[in-house]
Amino acid sequence: MIDTPAAAPGPGGALDVMALTSSPERFFARRLEERGDPFRVRFPGLGDVLVTGHPDGARDIFGAPADAFVPTENNPVEPLLGAGSLILLGGDRHRRERKIMMPPFHGDRMRAYGRIIQSRTLEEIARWPAAGDARLDVQAMTRAITLDVILRAIFGVRDEATRARFHETIVAMLDGYTTPLVALPALRRGFGGIGPWARFAKARDAFRALLHAEIAARRAEAQHESRASEREDVLSLLVAARYEDGEALSDEHLSDELCTLLVAGHETSATALAWALFYLGRDATLTGELRAEIAGAGAAPSPDALAELPLLGAVCNEALRLHPVVPIAIRRAARDVTVRGVAVPEGASVAVALTLLHHHASVWSEPSRFWPQRFLTRKYTPFEMAPFGGGARRCVGAAFATYEMKVILGTLIAHARLEGADTPPPKPVVKNITMAPSKPIYLHAVANPLVASHPTMGD
Ligand code: HEM
């Protein structure tokens, strides 16, 4: 076992889970203060986890060879994603799977998705009341946009009625996988077809049925070369993709991976955007500087022009730094390793607490302040700034997510005026699988009349 006094676990169990979910930042900061870095935390289902928030610890974990770590067992996302999910695979299977999953998310492919992301954002603005200002629930808006982006750009669903059906079942499934179900495996039982688990399972099955229909349709299209070649969505690319040995992904496997992309890529991007908008809403000077930068790229800047803007990129980075949407990156040692000099035997779990890493005093000045300009004057290493995790398990959608954030935020600022409503600052709490604001964020929003009267629609 890990035998350093500083690494001793706490009382463990449900109390730790409650403290972690109600404030991950405070929970990790208190553990660090009490026990030093690294420290151990005991979670139900996961056992003892050795946690570090130090850049050297992040280097030990993210910089280790790919075969040093595998996923933890009993990952709470398994009921949602299915056992074939990339997130749950280790070793050669993980390497082989990443090879087939990465190409659709390569930086070069972003142009194909940019138009969808921007037109969906303009559609949203066009829905606001034409006259006067709307009181906007920011997360409801960013969630609606990022979900639709996934349905269009990743699943490739073109029909609006089908998208609406997907939307309904996805919301029921994700809302149904409540924080207690995520945190406490004992609750994941049917109780005669009633209760939270049964409700979740019903919504999940409905979603999977829709997915299978979409996969079947895309396979049929793949038989017609002309129709298949005009498709640029991730599902179509994965239907056509082959492993190194020439094998294709099975329907079940495709369904697990699409579900993974949905769960990993929808709420995460929406929450990061909501944090960015919250801080912009409170800082008229910063918003003015950003508006000026965006105006310099033209009256209606293209997705690619937005993606190049330094301050816009810095605002997105600062939101991801201050409130990393995924608070920890966790793994299990596949062989004996050390983290900051502490021996970790094969089979033990380790994690980087991204909230601690992104506040580390050796790297960040005034770490609790939202100050995007810090990214304009200094480059940070992947062991200092790691909102997408790191190493062989780094987020597959990182390029997609950062591009998407810049295009949505830039388009909103270019085509609308957004001002902070008087809402007190929310606390970051764990909601489902992300670290999200504890209460709704509202902004006053006025659309540029040009957008309200000339919405740009379609894929
Ligand atoms: C702001 C948005 C996002 C954030 C903050 C985020 C963060 C993360 C983090 C921290 C991990 C774990 C990495 C590790 O263990 O080292 C991860 C994994 C992953 N993410 Fe993201 N993510 C975001 C958006 C997306 C998007 C848009 C997609 C795809 C559409 C995506 C797909 C994935 C997948 C498939 C994995 C598993 C990778 C593996 O296990 O090999 N993510 N993400």
Q: What is shown here, in short?
A:
This protein has 459 residues and is of the alpha+beta class. The chain is 51% helix and 12% strand. The chain has a single domain, classed as Orthogonal Bundle (Cytochrome p450), CATH 1.10.630.
Give structural attributes:
single chain; 459 residues; alpha+beta; Cytochrome p450; five-stranded mixed sheet; three-stranded antiparallel sheet; 21 helices; globular; disordered N terminus; binds protoporphyrin IX containing FE
How does this structure look, described?
The chain is globular and about 60 Å long. A 5-stranded mixed β-sheet has the order 1-2-8-5-3. A 3-stranded antiparallel β-sheet has the order 4-12-9. Strands 6-7 form a two-stranded antiparallel sheet. A hairpin with a 2-residue loop joins strand 10 (428-431) and strand 11. Helix 7 runs antiparallel to helix 14 (267-282), helix 14 crosses helix 17 (310-322) and helix 14 runs parallel beside helix 20 (398-415). 51% of the residues lie in helices and 12% in strands. It starts with 13 loop residues before the first helix and ends in a 6-residue tail after the last helix. It has 21 helices and 12 strands. Residues 86-87, 98, 154, 260-261, 264-265, 268-269, 272, 320, 325-326, 329, 387-390, 393-397, 400-401 line the site of protoporphyrin IX containing FE.
